[in-house]
Amino acid sequence: MELTGAQILLECLKEQGVDTVFGYPGGTILDVYDSLYQTPEIHHYLVSHEQGAAHAADGYARSTGKVGVCFATSGPGCTNLTTGIATAYMDSSPIVAITCNVSENLLGKDSFQEVDITGITMPITKWNYMVRDVSELADVVREAFLVARSGRPGPVLIDIAKNVTQERYGYTYLPVGEHRRHGRLGSLTSRPTDGLHIPEPDHGDVDILVEMLQVAKKPLLVCGGGVVRSRAHKEFNHFANLVDAPVAITLMGAGGFNGRDPLTTGMIGMHGSQASNMAVDNCDLLVAFGCRFSDRVALAPKTFASQAAIVQVDVDRSEINKNVQTTHHIIGDARRVLELLNERLEQQHHDEWKKFVFSFPTETEYDEGGDHLTPKQISEVIARKCPTDTIVSTDVGQHQMWVAQHFHYEYPGQLLTSGGFGTMGFGLGAAIGAQVGNPDKRVIHVTGDGSFRMNCNELATEQHYGLPIITFIYDNAVLGMVRQWQTLIYGKRYSETTLDRPPDWVKLAEAYGLEGRRVSTVSELEDALDDALACGHGYVIDCVIDHNEMVRPMVPGGQHITNFLAV
Predict the structure, then answer these.
(1) What residues contact 278, with CB distance under 8 A and at least 6 apart?
(2) pLDDT for 168-196, tens place per residue?
(3) Which of 83, 337, 339, 446 is the most exposed place for a label (fewest CB within 10 A)?
C-alpha cells in the first residue's frame, strides 16, 4: 500500500513492537506528529524538554530491556537530545532517536532551525543516518533498531528530511525476524567492532579460563555492566557460587549479581568498599565480565590487580586491553560465556581467601545525625518501606554513590544511573521512562539539590501522566561531590559550590500539582514516605543532610586502589 513517509515511519515502529515514544513536537516533525495523532497503538509522552525525552527513552530501555524511542524536531530540538544520547552511548543503552530536518532543497542554506545533527552525533551514536529519499526510509528504520539492540547495545539516530515525511511510497509489512542489514552502516559506525550479530565465543578461550580458575587460590570476580545488559544475572549467580569467589560490582553492574548475596564485596573503585579494593590488590586471578576498567574502577591501570592474572570477558573487542592489559580474554556475550563456563566447571571452595576478603567492611558506616539525616539513615528507611523490587533512578554526585553503596540490587535494570557520562539531571527523565515501562513496579528518583534543579521541569510530565514517582532529595545546600574534592584536595576553597538559593522544593512540588515535605529526622522521613507510598501520585521528599557529609571511602584519581583518603 502507498503511504506518506510519516506513516511509513510509524508502521515500521509498530513492526518493532514499539508502543511508547517520548518526545516534543516542532515544525519539521509536524507530519510525523499528525500521523501519530491517527495511530492509537503508539502512546506518546510529551516531556518538558527534549533532554527529558532522551533520558526517558534511556530509562525505559534500561529497565525493560527493550529499545527506547524518542522524537525531536530540527535545530535546538535535536541538539537538546545530545546529552541524553551521549549518556546512553557511554552506558551502552539501546535507544533510537528520530529527528526531522528541513526539506532537502533547504539543506546547506542555513535555513531556519537547520542543523547537521548526524555530524554532531556521529561520535556519540553507534550509528546514524540521514534519510533524503522516502524509498529508503523503511529499510533505515529497520536497520536502526537492529543496530541499536545487537552486539554491544547503543543509541542510534535517524534524521529525516521534512519532504520525506510528506512524500508517498509503497509500504509492505515485514516481520522483525526478516529484518537484515542493507549496507548503510559504512564508515558511520563509530564502534565498528560491535557487529550486528554476536559471534559464538571461542570454546578454546573458555577452556583456558576454566583451567585458570581451577588452579587459582584467590580468585575475584567483577560484575560489570555487560552482565546487566545481557540479562545474565542468573548465569552469573550460578557461576560465582560454583567458583566460590568474592564478587566486586561496578556501578553499572548493579543488579547483575544480588547485592545481598554473601559473596558480594560491594562496589569497586574510587568509592568502592575496602573489601572490594583489598580483594583487587591481593587476588591471584581477576575475572571481569562486561567491565571496561574505566578510570573510576582501575584508578592506576599499571598497578591494578598487580598480583593477579587478569581475564576480561566482553562483547566488544575494542575494549580488550584498552585501559588495563589482560593476561587472557574472551570475546562474546556475557550470558553465553557464562553458560559455557557453567557447563565446564565443578564446585570449588576458597574459604581462607573469603575469610581474608570479608575481614574488611563491604559498606561504610555513618554516624547518626543530630538535627539532620545521614545518607545511611535515608537509605535504610527507603529500603525498609519500599518493595524490594523497587526501581531506583539516580542523578550524579554524592547521593549516587550513597545509593550504590547502601542499596542492594537484585535484578538487571533495578538501578538506573549515568555511569560513564556522569549526567546530572538524568534521574527524573529516566524514572519517568522506567515507570511508563514498568507500571506495576514502584519507581523512586534519588537526587541531590544540585542535580535536581537541572531537570526538575519534568515534574510537569510526572504530574500530567499521573506517574507515582517519589523523589528523594539529599539536600545539603552544596554541590556535594565537587565540594568534597575541594575539601580534600583543594584546601577548602569552596569556589562556586554553595547552593544557598531557591527554590523551596516543597513549594516547587506543589506548584507542579504534586505534594512535598521537608524532613530532617528519621521519624519525619518515615511519615513522609508513608504518605508518598499511599497517595497514588508523584511526591517530593526534601531530606536535610549536613553540608560536610562525605562519600566514604574515597581513592583519588590516579592513585593505587587501596590508597584510601582519610575522609
Answers:
(1) 357, 360, 562
(2) 999 999 998 888 766 554 433 334 334 45
(3) 339
